[in-house]
Amino acid sequence: MQDLSKLARPYAVAAFKQASEEDAIAEWSAMLETLTTVMRDPTMMGIVANPNVRRAEAGDLVVDVCGDRLSETGRNFVRVLAQFGRLGVAAEIEQQFRAERARLERRTDVEVVSAFEISEVERNDLVAAMTRRLGNRVDVSVSVDHSLIGGVIICAGDMVIDGSVRGRLAELERTIA
Fold first, then answer.
1. CB within 8 Å of 77: residues ≥ 6 apart
2. CA 168 to centroid of chain Cα atoms
3. What is residue 2's predicted lDDT score, i.e. its pLDDT?
4. In which element (H, E) is residue 140 found?
5. Nearest to 31 by CA among 127, 97, 89
6. Phi and psi at residue 158, in whole multiples of 5°?
7. CA–CA separation, 10 and 70 (whole Å)
8. Stated pTM of the model
């Protein structure tokens, strides 16, 4: 099976270039989000993957379902994806597009998984610390996972900071073994 990120990369780059030329990066983000939502529907995935459905027909169907949420160039983009059998990588295209947008806007998405709910003060301290460390504005999303026992795991792109009790116990187990 091919790596989806490699399949999606040229399309994500092309979409970002087109969005930049149109000065419509936010609009393209919304269009790609719509496309991803449509393509996550099991019925739509089945239709697109059906070898008895021509690619052009699948593309036209996706365009129709997306409706007026796609611009003319957005509709053309969907048809190109359909033509080359790449509608199935829409989510990966959207993800890479968002990463390009974040780089342009000097913004980093930071995911925090905590053993317990964190307070607004703790969240603000975390945002300030990550902003200093990364040199970018950060957008933080927080989720709770009680299996961590205590502490937090912070993910920002390829960087992972595991300050959880579960992570420290696993590290101790590896050291002892």
1. 11, 14, 15, 18, 31
2. 29
3. 61
4. strand 137-144
5. 97
6. -85, -10
7. 20
8. 0.73
Give dist(CA 28, CA 24) in Å, integer. Answer: 6
If one counts every other C-beta atom within 10 angstroms of the C-beta of residue 84, the result is 12
Going by C-beta distance under 8 Å and a sequence separation of 6 or more, which residues neighbour residue 58? 47, 48, 82, 87
The separation between CA 138 and the C-alpha centre of its own chain, rounded to angstroms, equals 15
Beta-strand ranges (E) seen in the chain are 107-114, 137-144, 152-156, 159-162
Structural domains in the chain? Answer: 4-102 (1.10.520.20), 107-176 (no CATH)
Round the CA-based radius of gyration of the chain to a whole number and report it.
Answer: 20
Q: Which residues of 97-135 are buried (b: 16+ CB within 10 A; e: fewer)?
A: bbebbbeeeeebebebbbbeebeeeeeeebbeebeeebe
Give the contacts of 101 (CB within 8 A, at least 6 positions apart). Answer: 16, 25, 29
Sign of CA dihedral 143, 102, 7, 154: negative
- In the prediction, which pLDDT does 4 show? 83
pLDDT digits (tens, 9 = 90+) for 135-150: 899 999 999 999 999 9
pLDDT at residue 1, as a whole number: 46
